[in-house]
């Protein structure tokens, strides 16, 4: 795949003020997204992972300007022109949203219960001033693409199962044929047996319609399955960015390693691989000095709490934010075993 | 296995709820045994009846129609107690609830009361079941907080739940459940609301406490990875019925019920080729009020057959392995 960037995020920051007291004085800022830079290439899927509070959802919302970014540029290379989403006017945003749409996590709260499916899906078209007749026709066209029959058009969200609702959300995102789709935890609210259907659908749609995805999730096995490249975030910072192979097989940041090691493997004869990271994510209001991960890092040294590391290029597009990325050997099973393995029964 | 003494036996459990729209058979014929010091996993999707099964053991269900037997074997040679026959609000079940059998709920955000400190909430359980003075109870509560890995326990003792993170609140829930050294711990999706690194910590904690206290655990989850990592024995449920039960390694290596097989095929494993289509189960879990007759999985089953409209038989594949399916019965 030739690497043509479709989205370039440069030094994106979003600080939420924290207000206390009667006069609502600002006592500090939560640095939800702090100086994040990455590029998404045409036709690829970029996975964005991290624990709750790491800022991945705020990044998604900044990309669509559902929250106002404080600093940085978000360049969207459209078919005819390039937009800077961070400073685009209302009129330009209308064009931007024709090129980029979002799928939300919870299909139970992201659909208006009073709207019929056809109105839900047609809403982006209405915003683009498409006529009602044309909109209705395009809704009927898109329903089979997401695996729903035409009879779904007149139903209400409460008549649908979780999987069907998420198909409606996907149809709503795709109705304006955007080349870029941001999916924020699209499967985590779904039943196990339905989850794989929706992942298959997203994969299918990507190859059929040549879509580009920014795929946000906390389930690393799913991110690994669907993504070409992966960005790992911790406390508002990007700590590692690389191809799926680089991040999963050759990771260089101790946090990425810890995250990968805490993935539970669905095999009862392999209970020894899990590693337990001590402690919890510190408060984003008052992150540790230096490297934000230094308080939990098993390799932390003096330099780590004194000086914040830069995001550095390790070659082949593999970026790591760690002072000791070259020296650390994370390939070994450096961590203690978690559970004893049961013997095969009988 | 060194000791396979049963501590809890559930026989032919049925829990039905009368609703305006009709009867919901939330649990329809469930049988299993929890052995001393072992972990039983109950796995299934939403509406399969796994939480209702757990709650019916502690008789925590409002106005339901419960039948069958839940035999609890107390220490020594005492006669087993049938929990179903006890008055849900009586003293007998209250003496067992929280003391012999304790439960951890799914949401640490909502299952602690916001108006008491966590210390008071732990002490409530201790003083209910043990004859200890205020000071002794407080010392025990602090030692429990230490045991579940809450740093600086003496200071956190006076914290309110809103001052703690989700992982910490779940640890408090576990401390409350464990402060009377229960013989059975029921954990209902204890890690679903938590991040992966915290999930790993909590599961390790439950596992090590299980070994230290020789406690039995009933782990209820929708996540097959949690089952693979913790359970010794597994019950797979679908829409109130038991699809399959087996020792954990056997279940993962040789699943018999088409539902178990499909579930295991649909999850992403470390060796799943990237970006390939995953196996999936068609359709979605039906509304429990409109569950199909006979085998409830039949309208999604790849091996469906004419016989499936009748109630499927339980087929044994070994001393502890059985599946409820027509597939293995010759015509």
TrEMBL record, chain A:
Residues 7-260 form the ABC transporter domain. Keywords: ATP-binding, Nucleotide-binding, Transport. It comes from the Bacteria. GO terms for biological process: peptide transport; transmembrane transport. The keyword Transport applies. It holds the Pfam family ABC_tran. InterPro entries: AAA+_ATPase, ABC_transp_ATP-bind, ABC_transporter-like_ATP-bd, ABC_transporter-like_CS, Oligopep_ABC_C, P-loop_NTPase. GO terms for molecular function: ATP binding; ATP hydrolysis activity. PANTHER family: D,D-DIPEPTIDE TRANSPORT ATP-BINDING PROTEIN DDPF-RELATED (PTHR43776:SF7), TRANSPORT ATP-BINDING PROTEIN (PTHR43776). Belongs to the ABC transporter superfamily. This is ATP-binding cassette domain-containing protein.
TrEMBL record, chain B:
Pfam families: ABC_tran, oligo_HPY. Residues 273-292 are annotated as: Disordered. Keywords: ATP-binding, Cell inner membrane, Cell membrane, Membrane, Nucleotide-binding, Translocase, Transport. GO terms for biological process: peptide transport. The keyword Mitochondrion does not apply. It is found in: Cell membrane. One of its GO terms (cellular component) is plasma membrane. Gene3D superfamilies: P-loop containing nucleotide triphosphate hydrolases. Residues 8-264 form the ABC transporter domain. One of its GO terms (molecular function) is ATP hydrolysis activity. Belongs to the ABC transporter superfamily. This is ABC transporter ATP-binding protein. It comes from Caldilineaceae bacterium SB0664_bin_27.
